[in-house]
Amino acid sequence: MENQPPTPPFSPVPAPMSESDVRMWAMLAHLSALTGLFTGIGFIITPLIVWQIQKDKSAYIDYHGKEAVNFQITIALVSAVSFLLMFVLIGFVLIWIVGIVWLVFTIIAAIKANNGEYYRYPLTIRFIK
């Protein structure tokens, strides 16, 4: 017991992630929004959770996490406006368009993130910089 070398101090710095893991987490930041189809509110909360947990591990994940959260917040606002416009009947059409745009852009962003590309959602309000 006395001849054992001293144990190194605990290092709070995690081991670097592989490039494929970084791309996977960036992709999951976008795809996690699809949980909103089942939970109703998961489309904002789950990308936020993924981003908050993984943002310090890679600048690439941080970028895609911010993009995903900003897009989901923007879509939530546009959906609320569409819902209010249902009283004027235009909202019934608009809500379907918003839903299709949400699904298509989310999938495109996930594919781009998994391919190692920086994707910027169009027409998105940048709440988180």
What does this structure look like?
The protein contains five helices and no strands. The chain is mainly alpha-helical. It is elongated and about 80 Å long.
Unreliable parts: none
Sheet with most strands: none
Oligomerization: single chain
Structural class: mainly alpha
List the total number of helices: 5
What is the succession of H and E elements? Answer: HHHHH
Which range does the strand content fall in?
A: under 5%
Measured distance between first and last alpha carbons: 53 Å
What is the residue-mean pLDDT, rounded to a whole number? 89
Count of strand segments: 0
Short description:
With 129 residues, the chain is mostly helical.
Defining traits:
5 helices; mainly alpha; 129 residues
SSE arrangement:
Layout: H1 19-31, H2 36-39, H3 42-54, H4 59-84, H5 90-114
Helix pairs in contact: 1-3, 1-4, 1-5, 3-4, 4-5
